[in-house]
Specification:
With about 725 residues, the chain is of the alpha+beta class. The protein has 22 helices and 26 strands. β1 and β2 form a beta hairpin. Keywords: Hydrolase.
């Protein structure tokens, strides 16, 4: 280490009161101990001299980094006290005590230790696993050599310890990369995995995934910084893509042309090119200026192979999934009707695996006489044919209901539609033809289940008929529960045959009170392989019994999320929730341009509306804060105009931000200052009473609800707030 490098250790040794320690005055130290101390000072590796049976610590400047803020107080103290948190570990105290008592040297490779460096958990390195209690879980290569006196007794143990956490962390990062890429199917998912693991594997200050851009820019970039710790909600967001600068684009182009990684002279930049099918991609790591260690270079090859293969698969998957989801979601209504007297919301979740469109559908529209028609159904099967038939049946149901809303008439009309479709498809695309594939024709086996109903918004009278479809659930509000009714129940009603099969579908009549809610769903919500249907129904009833107060929007979200989290998802699912709005329902909406200055304009608009609605200042602040975060996310992630809607139902303000989505193209030039996201969605979730996000045919919708107090307004019926 030399005199300069060992200056602090020499100073501490020179000014310590050794007479107050078990070692005694410095002048009385045996020459063998002095010689060992000189070796410690000159060694470039972290070394401690543990003296006597109390293991009094003397250590060089390289060793102090292992102690963190325990230095310099640890100098001259007993190792038993300094590292008390690990002393009883079999590979620490007992090993050192044996070396001292028996005079045997040891070499310990790859020991895992939880070392308290005397710092707060907020000061973590970000390079390896760190528990929340402020300790570091690290890996160390250690050796211990006894220092012998002239008579052969042991004076001290020369303890060399080298932290190998980074090297082991890199190996683990590659292993985690392989495991996580195995289940990452989209380009967005793959890039998130790469950003996480590359930070550890390459000691990155920041890591960027760079892909070719279909837009004006040559390359698009998604970046993550070491200091950035995202919440689960933020992890689920699409990545932020921005344009790549010309200098970095030139570096990437050079690395791709040579087909080998680029390393800057000072080690600050490492660019790793990938082959992605017939295209190219790159990973850019920005590091602290230092030579790149060999173990970092060693993980480049497996990273290149794993990431290139995964991105190639993901590009193909995204193309197929985009087509399937676009077909599925564009056949569903982008918006549902709302009024002062009634509110309705829906959720649709395609099955999590595969790229095949399904046949689940829902719809709602006002009839000429002012009643609301509601439809939810399912075409048997999956694939483009099922989705196409779904769209045709949904359109036919709307046309039939607007012509004659009687359930028997609607069902009869749809029977004829299904018969015609069943006959049409095999004639136009028979099985066995060069263009046909199994499952493209129905061959007399086209079945469609559907629940159709009408709701009178003023009285709550509901008329329902089922063509082979599961009966809906009824969620009771405060008024109904005061009469002794359960929180939720499955309706008992007659079920007729599916559409396309002759039979009678009797009409069922019921009345929903203000605060009650009708919840329709497709069978994918209940049915699981190896289970009886009543098990799924029991699961749904349990979910309904625990349902917190909320609007149709939060109820649809809660039912979908709770059912899929408890039993997984094996088929497409749709949920449709309809309720009579409590007294005092208000609504306001604006379109927000995709510009940063739009955030302030949206806040000002919201404050004006909330003041007009007599919402108190405290609740206004909460709601406006949530709106600010959602509009900011929409500007960053979507890059398109957003539709901001606020609804006031007695006791609840619901805010919805819906965007038009994007294809992952660059949104901002020079967006580095915005690339480190805060905890926006976590904040919204924390300050709101309900929160959710889902995709629609137009893009993404994020919403939240806040229970509010109206200032100077006589409270009306509590409705959904109860």
């Amino acid at each position: 280490m030399g005199e300069g490098g060992a200056r602090e250790a020499r100073r501490l040794a020179a000014h310590s009161d050794w007479a107050a320690t078990p070692l005694g005055p410095r002048s009385q130290w045996p020459p063998q101990l002095e010689a060992a101390w000189e070796i410690v000072l000159e060694c470039p590796l972290p070394v401690a001299l543990l003296c006597g049976d109390e293991f009094t610590m003397l250590y060089n400047d390289a060793f102090r980094d292992l102690l963190g803020s325990k230095h310099p107080a640890a100098f001259g103290q007993s190792a038993r006290k300094v590292v008390a948190e690990i002393w009883d570990d079999p590979n620490v105290g007992p090993l050192l005590e044996r070396a001292y008592s028996e005079g045997e040297a040891f070499l310990d490779e790859g020991t895992e230790l939880r070392l308290d460096r005397g710092r707060s958990s907020a000061e973590g390195t970000g390079l390896h696993d760190e528990p929340d209690d402020g300790t570091d879980v690290g890996y160390y290569l250690r050796s211990g050599s006894p220092v012998l006196a002239e008579d052969g007794s042991v004076l001290a143990v020369l303890h060399v310890i080298v932290e190998t956490t980074s090297a082991i962390g890199r190996a683990r990062a590659v292993a985690r990369l392989a495991a996580q890429l195995a289940v990452a199917v989209t380009v967005d998912d793959v890039c998130k995995v790469v950003l996480r693991q590359a930070m550890v594997a390459f000691d990155g200050l920041s890591v960027s995934v760079c892909l070719p851009s279909a837009g004006p820019a040559t390359w698009r970039m998604a970046r993550r910084h070491r200091i950035e710790r995202l919440s689960p909600d933020e992890e689920r967001l699409p990545l932020i893509w921005s344009e790549l600068g010309e200098d970095m684009a030139a570096i990437i182009a050079g690395a791709i042309s040579r087909n080998e990684p680029y390393l800057s002279d000072n080690g600050e930049i490492v660019a790793v090119p990938f082959r992605v099918g017939g295209g190219r991609a790159a990973l850019v790591i920005q590091r602290e200026a230092a030579p790149v260690p060999q173990d970092v270079l060693a993980v480049l090859a497996p990273f290149r192979e794993l990431v290139g293969d995964a991105l190639g698969r993901a590009v193909v998957y995204d193309a197929e999934r985009t087509t399937a989801e676009l077909l599925q979601r564009t056949l569903l209504p982008p918006n549902l009707p709302q009024s002062d007297a009634i509110s309705i919301a829906a959720r649709y979740e395609p099955v999590s695996e595969g790229t095949v469109a399904g046949g689940d559908f829902y719809d709602s529209f006002f009839l000429p006489d002012g009643r609301l028609a509601v439809v939810i159904g399912d075409v048997v099967g999956r694939g483009v044919m099922a989705a196409t038939v779904m769209g045709q049946v949904r359109a036919a149901a709307r046309g039939a209901a607007l012509t004659d809303s009687d359930s028997a008439s609607v069902m009869s009309s749809l029977d004829r539609v299904v018969w015609d479709l069943d006959a049409l498809w095999p004639a136009s695309m028979p099985l066995g033809s060069p263009r046909a594939r199994p499952g493209m024709a129905f061959g007399g086996e086209l079945f469609v289940t559907m629940l159709y109903g009408t709701v009178d918004p003023e009285t709550g009278d509901v008329m329902l008929a089922s063509a082979g479809h599961p009966p809906p659930a009824l969620l009771h509000g405060l008024t109904s529960r005061a009469l002794g009714k359960a929180r939720g129940e499955l309706l008992t009603m007659p079920v007729g045959p599916p559409l396309g099969i002759d039979g009678v579908r009797p009409t069922h009549h019921l009345t929903i009170e203000v605060g009650d809610m009708l919840v329709g769903f497709t069978d994918g919500l209940l049915e699981r392989r190896g289970e009886a249907l009543d098990e799924g129904e029991a699961r749904l009833l349990e979910v309904l019994s625990e349902m917190p107060p909320g609007s149709p929007r939060s109820v649809a979200q809660y039912v979908m999320d709770s059912m899929l989290q408890t039993s997984g998802q094996e088929d497409d699912c749709a949920v449709l929730a309809i309720g009579r709005s409590p007294v005092g329902h208000r609504r306001a909406a604006i379109v927000v341009p995709p510009m940063p200055e739009s955030v302030r304009a949206a806040r000002d608009w919201a404050r004006e509306q909330l003041t007009d609605w007599s919402v108190g200042d405290g609740d206004q602040h909460t709601i406006v804060t949530g709106i600010s975060e959602l509009i900011t996310n929409a500007v960053l992630h979507a890059g398109t105009e957003s539709h901001l809607t606020m609804d006031l139902d007695t006791g609840i303000v619901a805010v919805t931000v819906a965007d038009s989505g994007n294809r992952g193209e660059p949104l901002l030039t020079g967006a580095d200052t915005m690339a480190v996201r805060g905890r926006g969605l976590s904040l919204v979730r924390a300050i709101s009473d309900s929160f959710g996000a889902h995709r629609t045919s137009a893009g993404s919708t994020v919403w939240f609800e806040v229970a509010v107090e109206l200032v100077g307004v006589q409270a009306a019926a509590r409705g959904w707030a109860d």
